[in-house]
Amino acid sequence: MTEIYQKLGVQPVINCATTYTRLGGSIMAPHVAQAMADSAGVFVNIFDLQEAVGKRLAELTHNEAAYVSNGAAAALTLATAAAVTGNDVALMARFPNRLDGLKNQVVVHRYQRNWYDVAVRLTGVELVEIGHTYETYDWELDDAINDRTAAVIYFAGTHLNRNTLPLEYVIERAHARGVPVIVDAAAQLPPASNLWHFTRDLGADVAIFSGGKLLRGPQNSGLAVGTEKMIEAMRLNGPPVQRIGRPMKVSKEAMIGLLAAVETYLETDHDAEALKWETVVASWQTAWQELAPRWLTVERSATGEAGEPIPRILMRVSPDAPLSRDDLIEGLHAGNPPIEVVVENQTTIAFSPHLLQPGEAEIVERRVSELIASHLLAQPSGAIAGD
To answer: Using one digit for the tens of pLDDT, what is the confidence trace for 296-334?
Structure first.
């Protein structure tokens, strides 16, 4: 299975990090890849396919409508465009440089600003920030919304919500002024209920998920679910028509692959999957804590890098350690195959279990144990393991 990469001189890795795009997202189930291969051998009307796949995805996720995009970031761009133009085709021709006189502002919490909001700004809209790093007041949202406000963008996840207004409140206040709410939930699976929680339950106009993360669909796919009004406007702004979404082309294979992946995800026993992750993390914690010197802390975290309910191990080096965080990473990369981890902060790395393939959890446990016991992690003279 790895021969195709080896011929190119590219080394496969063990992904103990998370569903990073730079590591290929996740691994599709064989039947998902087969569904994509089966769909590749015929021509089909893309408009008809997008509509049919969207209808089926809406049924599966308990939403009014759904749309397959070229990744979650493309869906962010199209949802922003939809909020600006609605179904007015003449307005769609004005992106990205002639938005004067239109609703050309999007409200966002300052605490939630991140690399991915560039997808919103691609349309030419202005981001209007509310709050600051430590607190956001109710009145700031009301004050930011005006007749130029196209939408409020909300980035879901406990890691981004500590100093923000609750999503329920944001939706209530935005809708009171006739402003739609876009939820970026790209990595917010599990739980599976999030596929309808933000929209059907809380009332957001659209929620966006990555198809290439834990849905385990094509890496270049995204799923937008929400109201018929918002999804239809996204379709009109999107490919294959020659509008702002034209560079964000979605293949027939990606549509079929994502549909197969969502069907599988909703049939998965997520409790059994969570138990498997817990078992791996518990084994790692026991093995590594027994070996850890006084300057190396090994502890369990209940949440993943994006705040998802995925357990993992945090490994932290103290300031007086004889090696740095980067030394740890270099040691993990030096093996065959290399092990990729999350870089949590300047002193800490994280090991996640949810993307491991059969047999890899044991390889990681053994390799890290050897690394701790090796000369690379040799303790200062006189120190005792476990002190």
So the answer is: 999 999 999 888 999 999 999 998 888 889 989 999 999
Whole-prediction pTM value?
Answer: 0.93
Helix (H, G, I), strand (E, B) or coil at 34: helix
- How many other C-beta atoms lie within 10 A of the C-beta of residue 334? 12
**178 token code pair:** 């006739």
Question: Which tokens is 339 given?
Answer: 């092990």
Alpha helix positions (H), 216-268: 228-237, 252-267
Separation of alpha carbons 154 and 160, rounded Å: 9
How many helices, marked H, and strands, marked E, lie in the chain?
14, 13
- Which pair of structure tokens corresponds to residue 108? 């966002």
DSSP run (H or E) holding 222? strand 222-226
Q: Which helix (H) or strand (E) holds 70?
A: none
Residue range 43-267, CATH number: 3.40.640.10
The CATH number assigned to the domain with range 3-19+270-377 reads: 3.90.1150.180
Any residues with CB less than 8 A from the CB of 64 and at least 6 apart, and which? 58, 226, 227, 228, 231
The span from the CA of 185 to the CA of 294, in Å, is: 39
The pLDDT tens digits for 35-65 are 999 999 999 999 999 999 999 999 999 999 9
Signed CA dihedral, 187, 193, 198, 200: sign only: positive
- Give the whole-angstrom CA distance, residue 363 versus residue 356: 10
Q: Which residues, listed in sequence order, are joined to residue 224 by a DSSP beta bridge?
A: 67, 208
Q: Where are the chain's structural domains? A: 3-19+270-377, 43-267
